[in-house]
Amino acid sequence: MFLKFMFKYQRCVVLCLVATFVFGFLVTFWTTYNKRQPHLDAITVDEPFDFDKWREQRQVVHERMNNYMDQQSEGPNLLDKIKKIAREGRKRTPAEEVSLPLTTDLPDPNYNVHVFYYGWYGNPDKNGKYYHWNHSYLSHWNAKEDKKWPKGSHLPPGDIGSNYYPELGPYSSKDVKVINNHMKQIRMAGIGVLAVSWYPPGDADEQGEPSDNLVPVLLDEAEKYKLKVCLHVEPYKGRNIVNMRINIKYALEKYGNHPAFYKTIHRGKSLPMFYIYDSYNLPSKEWKELLFDNGKSTIRGTPLDAMFIGLVVKKHDLDEMIPAGFDGFYTYFATDGFTFGSSQKNWNYMAQQAKLKNLVFIPSIGPGYNDTRVRAWNDINSRSRSNGNYYKTSFREAANIKPSIISITSFNEWHEGTQIERAMPKEHAGYKYLSYHPNSPDYYLQLTQQLIKKWKSSSNH
Predict the structure, then answer these.
(1) Closest Cα partner for 392 from 414, 408, 371?
(2) Segment 243-261 mean pLDDT
(3) Predicted structure pTM score
């Protein structure tokens, strides 16, 4: 009897040891990390910026370098790791680690302040690979000049296509926890409306993947924070009046009845709003077929009617707003002096023209601009944040023209360094990312809240 007991006991011990070994192997494998290649340093250039050539060339990219580096174990102390995992239960995601105020502590949303939002980011956990964080270096339009600049793609997670590093790390825009965190940050800033970068189903930019299926999640999460969502229609391939009408119909039928889909009073009616990026790519004679009452494909007076906001880059674009049938215009770029539209000295004139033509002028402001991690040659158009002073000045200039709506570029356009999303200090392979230091990671959210509050008290918006 004793021998039988000992035999069973020995078998149990052996099984326990085997199970512990298997568990230890899996934990060790799970806690590995990737070594990454160092970045390519950017160099400044004083050559004048040619916007027309940049406009033509900005979509040209190099092939992505998606190879992963060898993995290496974190360390030998397996027992400590097992104990730690047992205590924590599971690993928390960066979106859960970031501490934000309770919803009840957040300011009321201001629906006259819109922020441009990008849902094109991806990572291996949620998307199977990185999207946009591994952005390629874009070519210079001058072949001789182009030889001076870095080529290839960034290698996340340490090396990303941005001069700043997000506090949430290289996240996936599909991660509901990330989306919820973003909504809380936007609400914390006192903003009311997200203008979401949008491509029709199946379409995407060259660095990303189709993201139309993200819109329902954004709407649901926005509703939890009393935020609204409108669409910022990107220049998808083959965009014309025929498919624009089809895509507007699709968007309104699928999303138009959601409580979080933004609508505003215009021409005495409650209408949805669409920002149209690069609207100048189609001539006014084509737009009028969609936006004039008597146009062949008109949406006016139909269930598809909406408020259409065109982009003004050059003065000619402003002149074309009325012939095209747009309801208003915006300027998007957060770089003062970069274009006619983004030059703040022109905003008073543009506001006067808008008033004369019964159009809505929505100036776009931002905290700064720096895109040299994707356009290494474009330092000439960088705009320092100056510890928030650039943002304050831009907001003041916009408020001075007494607009009904102000747009902010951007919540999370990390490639161009215009984000107000929380950022963190970070160094990788000798490269030190820019940060909001000496201020806190949420400095630009707090500053946005203060600026909106001041604008609201002075103009009743």
Answers:
(1) 408
(2) 98
(3) 0.81
User: How far is the C-alpha of 61 from the C-alpha of 153, rounded, in Å?
Assistant: 9
Q: At what angle do helices 241-255 and 215-224 cross, to 10 degrees?
A: 40
- Paired with 72 in beta bridges are 33
CB-based contact 260:193 (threshold 8 Å): no
Structure-token match 């006259």, residue found? 112
- Cβ burial of 236 (10 Å; 0-12, 13-18, 19+) is middle
Residue 393, both tokens: 């000045």
Q: Which two tokens stand for residue 251?
A: 């968007």
- Provide the strand spans (E) within 172-322: 191-198, 228-233, 263-266, 269-276, 307-311
Note whether 354 and 322 are within 8 A (CB).
Answer: no
At residue 309, the pLDDT reads 98
Compare 16 and 101 and report the one with higher pLDDT. 101
Q: How far is CA 41 from CA 194, 234, 431, 432, in A?
A: 34, 30, 8, 11
The CA distance from 394 to 409, in Å, is 11
Residue type, 91: K
Rg (CA), the chain: 25
Tens of pLDDT, residue by residue over 84-136, are 444 444 555 677 666 666 666 899 999 999 999 999 999 999 999 999 999 99
Position 223, amino acid: E
Quick one: 168 exposed, middle or buried, by C-beta within 10 A (0-12, 13-18, 19+)? buried
Distance between CA atoms of residues 203 and 282, nearest Å:
19
Contacts from 424-432 at CB under 8 Å and sequence distance 24+?
Answer: 424/165, 424/166, 424/167, 425/165, 426/165, 428/36, 428/38, 428/39, 428/158, 428/159, 429/36, 429/37, 429/38, 429/39, 429/158, 429/159, 430/38, 430/39, 431/38, 431/39, 431/41, 431/159
Please enumerate in sequence order all residues whose Cβ is within 8 A of that of 428, keeping only pairs 6 or more positions apart, or say none. Answer: 36, 38, 39, 158, 159
